[in-house]
Amino acid sequence: MDIDDLRIVTAVAKHGSMNRAAAQLNMVQSSVTARIRLLEEELGVPLFVRHSRGVRLSDAGERLLSFSDRIHTLFDEAVAAVKEDGVPKGALRIGSTEPTVSLRLPPVLAEYARKYPAVALTITLGNTSELIEQVIDQTLDGAFVAGPVQRPGLIEEPVYREDVVLVSQASTRSIDVLRNSGDVRALVLDQGCSYRDLLTEILETYGIKNQVLPLASFDAIRSCVESGVGVTLLPKELLAGAWKSASVAIHELAGRTGQVETVFIRRAESTHFSALNAFAVLSRASSNFTR
Asked: For residue range 29-41, what is the model confidence (pLDDT) as tens digits?
């Protein structure tokens, strides 16, 4: 078995058809079929179950495919490492939560594009849980997430510390009003939102009964806060920017309760790549983090 065999297995699994896989691979169907048959004979197990409409992966095929994706990624990284000459270039995939993109990254991205035009940089938005898993499974090279993370195999570096505030409808003048209003809806992005647990913890600390209401976007959260559906937690600086015109009330939080740490994470084995290192350096230079 070699990397070309894995490439063929991946294509057949994707299309569910030897014929369509052959078209993608610029091969004839008989060659694809023969390679799959030889691989199955070598391994001693069927990789595909044949049916009237094509093929599907067997249990053994599913297990092989899970390794195939990782092997292809590792192969690509090996090629990139061999070509590494200290000059940032090639593809760089960075993830971030939405508040960090809005508040901190625009100048970093602009400076990076100016200094390293040979790097094809892409930014993926997501919640903290999603982004951590994407760095671990090598879909992303690095990501800005809520910290601390403390996951094996990851390097994390604190880069930003945000002062966060409780945000409510404009007519709600104090936290005492919220405390006396019965159940309050805690508006968050989704299950993996880094502010979800912090918001409910803060509300409970102030004696405010609450129930979580996940929403699809910051725009939806803003509309619901303005109309009195519930309250949310946001970086204070975001309210001076993207939410500047919002009709809301801002409630300051005491001490470290009102602070959120953002860390930049990457896999420990990826630290030698120039494009990623250069990005980490620029991020570090923009940091407002002090211990």
From this structure: 999 999 999 999 9
Whether residues 185 and 149 fall in one domain: no
Report residue 117: phi and psi, to 5°: -65, -15
Q: Do the beta carbons of residue 98 and residue 126 sit within 8 Å?
A: no
Both 153 and 238 in one domain: the answer is no
Exposed, middle or buried: residue 145 (CB in 10 Å: 0-12, 13-18, 19+)? buried
Spatial contact of 221 and 215, defined as CB atoms under 8 Å apart:
yes
Q: ∠37-39-43 over CA atoms, to 5°? A: 120
Mean pLDDT throughout 163-172? 91
Residue 273 is predicted with a pLDDT of 81
> Residue 96 burial by CB count (10 A; 0-12/13-18/19+): exposed, middle or buried?
buried
Q: Report the phi/psi class of residue 166: left, alpha or beta, with left for phi > 0 and alpha for psi in -120 to 50.
A: beta
Q: Is 104 helix (H, G, I), strand (E, B) or coil?
A: coil
Residue bearing the bigger pLDDT, 75 or 92: 92
Percent of the chain with pLDDT over 70: 93
Side-chain-side CA neighbours of 258 within 13 Å: the count stands at: 15
Which residue range is the domain that position 241 belongs to?
162-259
Spatial neighbors of 215 by CB under 8 A, at least 6 apart, are 187, 188, 189, 190, 221, 224
Note whether 272 and 145 are same-domain residues: yes
Q: What's the number of CA atoms in the CB half-sphere (13 Å) around residue 217?
A: 3
